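HOLO CASE FILE
Compound: F0G
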Amino acid sequence: MSSASLRCIEEGCLSEYPIHYPHLLCSACGGLLDVQYSFHLPLDAAGTKAAFERRKLGHLPADLSGVWRFHELLPFAADLSQIVTLGEGNTPVYEGRRSAEYSGLESVRFKHQGMNPTGSFKDNGMTTGVTRAREEGAAAVACASTGNTSASMAAYAARAGMRAIVFVPAGQVAYGKLAQALEYGATVVELEGNFDDAMRIVREFTAESGVYLLNSLNPFRLEGQKTIMIELMEQCGWRPPDWIVLPGGNLGNASAFGKALHELAELGFIKKMPRLAVIQAEGAAPFYELAQLPGGSNINPVGHPVTLATAIRIGNPVSWKKALRSLAWTGGVVEAVSEQEIADAKAVIGRDGIGCEPASAASLAGARRLVSRGLIERSADVICVLTGNLLKDPDYTIAYHSGKLAFEKDGKQMVIHGTMTNRPVRVAADKDAIKRTLDR
Ligand code: F0G
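Model generated. Tokens follow.
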């Protein structure tokens, strides 16, 4: 039987705590905690992989979840019959021909986490986070969010019969996401401030009230997000690609992906380490700045993060130390891309018949940059992770296609050039007029 504990990630500390330790940070030094395992798998790697595969044909909720069918690699839950699940994960991998052409690659694939029950990768982490909250006997859960975390937490809390309280930056959350949180019954607190303010407030609020915190500094959420990589490796026949490219905001995914790949390599499930490329929006890129400094070891928060990709409008990411470790484990890199690049990449992904929300498109925009810089070879095997569904942020998409997408920078209005705009055409309700328009 494998065993689980919590361990501080700070090299000089490494304090250990039992799995039921009621705090999310190290009480000795305030550092982030990892869920740490001593793995004793009942089967060898090949046998365990076969068990993962077989469960897809199963009937139990844990078998049908693309998170819990990998439970041997996240062995912290006491009772798999008590999980809170919406059948998350099991997301597709798509080839993108136009996207490959656009980025200068011979081919590119997308792991589409936007095909989750609430439309984002947050569901992978929320099934484990809310399951953990239930094990702790929590009656209420809370998070700060740029939108997707709140939508996902609200849904899973509703399934578990818990109260959900979400703190979001007022006026900065895409409509699809806000609509979800409201519909799933969360108490939505719109704060006058940005995400980083909301994060500070929710930490204070949960510390005082005892409400269970479900941001990604909760290590149990990251355990669920690990399965995005486990499932991806399975989809690649356990032959890792050369590069995995993902957007970076609060850096929970970057942290979880690195931990997953590190554990898979240690357990002998994969023989090669793929490299992670974390992509930030230029106006919200503290992790990119940190990675540019040789030996850089401290993040310099961005006071006023700016990007139309509101999901990653984050200036002070909580998981940057874990993300730094992921770069070290995987030979990873960080890149930053402009608003124009994100908008164009998103439109190209749409033309491949796939689509995604703005933050997700930073992945393809970043891959393109890294190819043009010669860091990623044209013939490399590259997988971009699309983190959220196209329908999350319809306002952005409509604005782009009508040539009205704009943002403010240093007090100036910056307009995005709609290089791939696709405006609707208005025609009289007349057969010949329609024919003339279509022939044009
Ligand atoms: N993509 C999407 C669609 C997101 O919603 C987020 C984060 C990210 C990328 C960045 O991921 O934080 O793991 O680096 N959204 C959070 C939220 C902050 O509140 O929904 P990360």
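CASE NOTES: The pocket of F0G is lined by residues 120, 122, 145-149, 216, 247-254, 311-312, 357, 359-360, 387-388 (CB under 6 Å). The chain has a mean pLDDT of 97.
CLOSED: yes
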